[in-house]
Design goal:
By secondary structure, the protein is of the alpha/beta class. The chain is 40% helix and 22% strand. Helix 2 runs parallel beside helix 3 and helix 6 crosses helix 8 (189-201).
Length: 222
């Protein structure tokens, strides 16, 4: 899952980005409203974390602008403005949730998970396909009774496939949702990462569930 963090306060932005990456999300960052609008309209994000007091274009206007341009990505607003009128204004601009500063990172993560559950791809706190099981809260993966240890990127790849079973997923879709803005589209990192993931989930003669589709991408199917 790919998240855009819009925050001009460097310390907080770095903490949010680092914490989200530890939770296996791909994260981009914007430091002002103009950059936020450009990235939100250019990339296919699963969630936007939007501070209100940012340079060039404030968060309220950013929210209005991207909603006017038919960007439907869930938006979590972050702000030190805590009056009821500010919260109402933010929600009326098109935000899906509102978190006032200071806040605990645990609450922030819970709200992120809740908003992602509302999106079209997420339906529960766990994902299953055949004998593969992923616990989205504990970040654990099992095939049958065997626990599988994955890197952060392998976990994010498997999560995206589990959210889209029996659908052909192109390399560009994987790049959009699993990698960040610095991904090199000319590299073979996607193929290499999927190869490593296959070796971990298909050991001991287990049936293959990740298949290549020539010229199109990959598909999870039994």
């Amino acid at each position: 899952m790919r998240i855009l963090v819009v925050e001009d306060e460097t310390g907080l932005a770095n903490s949010l980005v680092a914490g989200l990456k530890e939770e296996c999300y791909a994260v981009d960052r914007a430091g002002d409203g103009e950059e936020a609008e450009f990235l939100a309209e250019t990339n296919d994000y699963d969630l936007i974390v939007l501070d209100l007091m940012i340079p060039k274009i404030d968060g309220f206007q950013v929210c209005r602008d991207i909603r006017d341009r038919k960007v439907t990505t869930p938006i979590l607003m972050l702000t030190a403005l805590d009056s009821v009128s500010d919260k109402v204004k933010g929600l009326d601009c098109g935000a899906d949730d509102y978190l006032t500063k200071p806040f605990s990172f645990e609450e922030f993560l819970a709200r992120v998970r809740a908003l992602l559950r509302r999106g079209p791809l997420t339906v529960a706190s766990s994902l299953d396909y055949k004998d593969l099981h992923m616990d989205l809260i504990a970040h654990s993966v099992f095939r049958g009774d065997r626990r599988i240890e994955l890197t952060g990127k392998e976990y994010a790849l498997l999560e995206f496939f589990l959210r889209n079973p029996e659908r052909i997923i192109s390399r560009s879709q994987l790049a959009e949702h699993v990698w960040d803005q610095y991904f090199d589209p000319l590299s073979n990192v996607i193929d290499v990462s999927i190869s490593h993931l296959r070796k971990k989930i298909e050991v001991n003669g287990g049936p293959r569930v990740l298949h290549s589709v020539r010229g199109m991408g990959y598909i999870m199917k039994s």
